[in-house]
Specification:
This protein has 425 residues and is mainly alpha-helical. The chain has 18 helices and six strands. It is 52% helix and 7% strand. It has a three-stranded antiparallel β-sheet. It has a three-stranded antiparallel β-sheet with strand order 4-5-6. Helix 10 runs antiparallel to helix 11. It starts with a strand and ends in a 27-residue tail after the last helix. It binds acetyl coenzyme *A.
Length: 425
Amino acid sequence: MAEHVTLIYAGKEFRLPLVTGSEGEKAIDISLLRRETGLITLDSGYANTGSCKSAITFVDGEKGILRYRGIPVEQLAERSTFKETAYLLINGELPSQKELTRFSVLLNDHSLVHEDMKTFYQNFPRSSHPMGILSAMVNALRSFYPELQDLDEETTITVTRLLSKVRTMAAMSHKISRGHTVVYPRSDLTYCANFLNMMFDSPVKPYEIDPDVVKALNVFLILHADHEQNCSTAAVRVVGSARVNLYAAISAGIAALWGPLHGGANQAVIETLGEIAQGGNLHQMIARAKDRQDPYRLMGFGHRVYKTFDPRARIMKRMAHVLLDKLNLSDPLLDVARELEEIALKDDYFIEHHLYPNVDFYSGIVLRAIGIPINMFTVLFAIGRLPGWIAQWKESMDEPDWKLCRPRQVYTGPHERPYVPIEER
Ligand code: ACO
């Protein structure tokens, strides 16, 4: 017999079915709850709410497990490329050689950005944050490229167009913000090498592509490629559920990712580490993070799902060491990060609250070594998360039980009262 839980309310029993995922996790199906009982659930921040069934990414926050389409992220980081991982997330399987070649050709075919879009960039104030620009520009893509039809071929083109153009647009925003000439994509370069070249090549100093840097960027992007129903992915699904075009849904995801509690944390971590390296008081910062009266938090620590070491943070930490060694660089911020981690992991507050370094804690050090400027850190996260957003959007579009996302609320405002004319207030 199918499993269920029993809810007793107003002297009556209601049987709510249990749903079991492929890794054994269980959920109470409350889809008939309101109809049968008149009740709704209340779950601030959705910490206990499954918003969908998904076959894309599996996270076990207690054990520190992350798998894309069943494949451990550790294996992908070691053996795959970002392009191949993007294909896996979006299509469900690793590509054959033929499929990968076709995917590369499509990415190259769609890598150029409409020249008219350059004028948009030039009109943003110089102090604009690149995440704000990227979100606006991705939304603007819809004006330049046609709406998706529901043909498979069209989806493939729109998806590859996004994956390829967002990378070009990110590099373009960096060049324009510096007042430098835009570097165009090259079809002879791989996805990551192409991005690095567009970011750093210049007419006066040609950029030398270093395979170690390309590998590091691939790993960075793979580690960010998806993370099930996080804030920005939830934003993509919620906005997408109104059947808006894909560009608008992704633009919403970029806006959500910008927040310092989410993707914006990678920039905030480097700012904190920099402050400490320049003589800031590390112990005082930890004390502030522990003080419940103080809203200050230690950036790069804690996670809604991971109550142990974030597996991505382990890989990122190792990558930071390997890359700095290979490039023969030293970064004082890596020493500060190690010291901070060591102190925090022994601290009772951090132990009791299960606060471990998350993916953002070491990622900034890897990006600094690659040469990425700090205000572009979250943009790099967005490029990485793009295949995840697309895969989740696609899955939600194909969902047979699709519904417009429209949560309910428990109203706590005033009872009905009459309108008072302004002269009587
Ligand atoms: N520093 C100090 N205390 C913290 C931190 C932190 N970084 N994170 C959580 N806590 C404490 C909270 O104060 C709270 O304490 P209390 O129970 O004594 O009141 C407790 O831990 C639980 O915190 P919540 O905010 O309820 O936990 P939640 O799951 O909502 O938080 C979050 C997750 C937002 C990521 C949080 O840990 C945080 O703000 N971290 C810093 C920002 C950060 O690094 N964000 C990146 C996350 S990874 C990503 O998005 C890619």
